[in-house]
Amino acid sequence: EYYDLENSFLFSTFNGKPTIPITLVSIFCALADECGLVARPVGFPGEVMAQVEQPLDSSMPLIISVFNDKIMSLDEINERLANVIHRPLTYPLTITPISDFAIRSARNMIHSIGRNTTSSLNSYGLYAAVSILKILGGDALPFAYDSMMNVLKEHFPMDMNFLEMLSSSMTNAFDELSQIRIQDANPLPIEEKRRKNSPPKFYVGQIFQHKQYNYWGVICGWDLSCAASPIWQVRMGIPNLVRGALQ
Predict the structure, then answer these.
(1) Does pTM surpass 0.85?
(2) Which one, of 115, 152, 98, lies nearest residue 130 by Cα?
(3) Which portions of the chain are predicted below pLDDT 50?
(4) Same domain, 9 and 43
(5) Strand-pair partners of 227
């Protein structure tokens, strides 16, 4: 599915999920470089391909449609693009700069979010996409900037630098930033946590993959006992564990 946001994340592809051309080309070029080949992305309307230099200097580079698993001739590419280009392409094709490649990927993510507003990845995709566009100078859809404040407040409340960087592009940024600064000036007391028997098995900042559901996450905090609601604990079988809620 082209507009499935998950297809823009490399971890989904590594887990065997079908993906989109721009993600496949990213992986292909990285693997080619590891094998001693020179492979670079070439952006066309509707698809990104890879241009691979052949070992012999006199040889024409190969244009590979990684998504379709096919080596494309220049005639095939020109035929496909006949309605969108003014003159036929010639070798060597223009390599797409990495910055343009990243901006194109970010725009794909924002379009995916606009089409599917219920994805659990939307907040993280929007954060990544708007960050790329703001840093590299690309333009985002207006709704993307306006949605970022809620995303930052809910999922990334500590990222004040990013908030301030976006403030010029966000319609409601000034009042929101003022409220956050007031909250920062009156922080909640820090409660020291200690375990009597053993330290926590995992540490804050550690990236992990769930054994059963395969999703990826990062540890941002921990509790001495399970702090979820009793209903959630029963539903997830917490009382059946050896130490119950005191894992």
Answers:
(1) no
(2) 152
(3) none
(4) yes
(5) none
